[in-house]
Amino acid sequence: MKFLFNLSFRYKIPLWGGLLIVVTSLAVSLALIAQAYDDLQVDVLNSSANLSRILAKTLFPAMLQEEVWRSFEIIRAPLHGKATDNPIQPEMILVLDQEQNVYVSSNPVLVPMLAKLPQLGEDFSRLSQLIASRPETDAPITDYSSTQRIYIATPIAEEGMRLGTLVLIHSNDVFLPRFRNVAWRSAFSGLLILAVLLPLNWYWGLRMAAPLIELAKGVRDVSHGEIEYPHAVTYPYRDELGQLFETYGLMLKALQEKRLLEQEMVRSERLAAIGRLSAGIAHEINNPLGGMLVALDNFKRRGGHDERSLKTMAMIERGLTQIRDTVSAILVEARVKGRNLAAQDLEDVQMLLTGEAHKRSVMMEIDNALVAPVSLPATLMRQVLMNLLLNAIHASEPAGKVRCAMRFADNQLMIEVENAGRTIPVEVMTHLFEPFVSGDETGHGLGLWVTYQIVSQLGGQITAKSGDGLTRFEVFLPVGVAT
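Above: the chain sequence. Below: its structure as tokens.
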């Protein structure tokens, strides 16, 4: 059986389709036979019920006047000229009195007069019990006590007065000829359907299998590293199979994007390695640098220096200060403990940058939705906000606007900084978060790199979009509400 499932679709689809057609044809044929049987049975029951009502109404005055011979003639009348292939005509008719004794029978030899109904056999006994349980004077009773015969019992009554019961007996044997005819017709129709549908099924199965085989070959090529769309597409329609080819193309596109993402991950790892190396170098530089600044400050306090010496010391101090600022920017350590970030921190950053924004005629719009403190180091987050807002102010045109939004939702801090002005060039966007890369000639390119390092060490993400005169930075940091 497993061998059938391992077959190629060029064989599997036609074979399974052919099997489905054969099973469906058989099911339809059997349903037609069953329906014909039900329809024939319903016709017999309806016609017999109508006949029994007419006979019961005719028998009532004859039984009322105790005219036995008249009653016999009445029940024998429907049986004259009996045709064995007419299922509507009953096989036998009985008239019972109120004590369920045979009042008159259409076949006195088989069922004699005055015989008690329960004593005539098991079927008649069950019919007797059914009649006794239904004392109503209307509504015929249908009994399927036997698989060979059908019994229809109708009360002989008028105006609430019941004289007895009329029983019509039908044989099931008369159904067999009609069943044979229906079966032969159904079989012929089924064979005709198979003769038409099986070749069509084989043709369409091959048509459907061909593109699937081609698609399987393309997927196999992809597994070997050949990411390309199949050259010959033999199924150009827009049904599910066509959508499968379209999805395959989307998959190839996703694989290409995955390759780019892997390259980006390599780039991020390279940045992280640079960050660790830079942090180590910064630590080593910071110690002697601090000592040099302290020594220079002590030397200046001694006094007695001429003007040329003071200028030289001032130049040295500015140089050392610049080195200290650069090292401070490189030295990022997100594991520093401190107080949690609160709403006031954004207000403090806004106040610190108000002078710079006013000098450049830039308006700052702050949307701070934080209410409770969040578990993030305030010092580092202030540095992130300062770097992003300061870059936005410097990149804005005069009379421009910088917008900053910070909110907490779903255990995540979201920061968005947006400015209108000159956009970031594509070549700069590619290396935006690398050290010493800047779109501003006056900048050293460490601010965004420091921001990237802080966000990464805090387990978050930072993205940048720039185009159509609008630049937006978005930061997402996982946090919890500080307690």
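The mean pLDDT is 78.
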